[in-house]
Amino acid sequence: MHQPINLLIADDHALIREGLRKILSIEPGINVVGEVADGQQAVDFCHHNQVDIVLMDINMPVMNGIEACRKIKESKPHIGIIALTIHDQDEYLFELIKYGIAGYVLKDVHPDQLVKTIQGVARGESFIPPAMTARVLAEFSRLSCGDHTEKKHHLLTEREIEVLKQVAKGQSNKAIAKTLFISEKTVKNHLTSIFNKIGVEDRTQAALYAIKEKLVEI
């Protein structure tokens, strides 16, 4: 039997916290372990409690969600963070990706999709809205304009490129292992090597790199 997903809700609006808690508490396999009203409380809660996933509002007092994401990932890199926001603003997503966010959803997301996102992030997957992915890639391209250094994916083996392509398609380690007829442990080993070679820290950054370098198409 799978361990329940320990979930923390971080939002400065009590009604939103209450609504999320009611929706998610009845979902089998999700254990809402706490609710906090600002980013600093989220950081402190994660430091003292067992948390797997944080639903993180972006605009909060004391410490915003972006800074809280950075601090949590520095001390607890295994925690998956899903950003919740009213606006699909590019600068938020761009900053959050740099700090290792695993998912980005708008607050009007359908409850079923939110549950699927939480479950997917818990499996090690990443969720960025396709429309926003294209805009973020454009920003990455703008920032890297004029960079004529050798493409880092040339350092990857043929198998590592296959794994990277599957990551960019949003596949979990289990799904990649099944598709490529290898073990999940081998997938993890390949991912560690891929991250080191192309200079990224997580699956989301690796997926965006693969799309940007046209290893896959969106």
TrEMBL record:
**Xref: SUPFAM superfamilies:** C-terminal effector domain of the bipartite response regulators, CheY-like
The protein in question is named Stage 0 sporulation protein A homolog
List residues of the HTH luxR-type domain. Answer: 149-214
InterPro entries tied to this protein: CheY-like_superfamily (IPR011006), NreC/VraR/RcsB-like_REC (IPR058245), Sig_transdc_resp-reg_C-effctor (IPR016032), Sig_transdc_resp-reg_receiver (IPR001789), Tscrpt_reg_LuxR_C (IPR000792), WalR-like (IPR039420)
Fetch the Gene3D superfamilies from UniProt: 3.40.50.2300
What's the source species for this entry?
Desulforamulus hydrothermalis Lam5 = DSM 18033
Which positions does the record annotate as the modified residue 4-aspartylphosphate? 57
Start and end of every Response regulatory domain?
Answer: 6-122
Query: Per UniProt, which keywords does this protein have?
Result: DNA-binding, Phosphoprotein, Transcription, Transcription regulation
Q: Name one GO molecular function term.
A: DNA binding
The answer on whether this UniProt entry bears the keyword Disulfide bond reads: no
Biological role: May play the central regulatory role in sporulation. It may be an element of the effector pathway responsible for the activation of sporulation genes in response to nutritional stress. Spo0A may act in concert with spo0H (a sigma factor) to control the expression of some genes that are critical to the sporulation process.
Respond yes or no to whether keyword NAD is given for this record.
no
GO biological process, alphabetically ordered: phosphorelay signal transduction system; regulation of DNA-templated transcription
Give the source lineage, highest ranks first.
Bacteria, Bacillati, Bacillota, Clostridia, Eubacteriales
Q: Which Pfam families match?
A: GerE, Response_reg
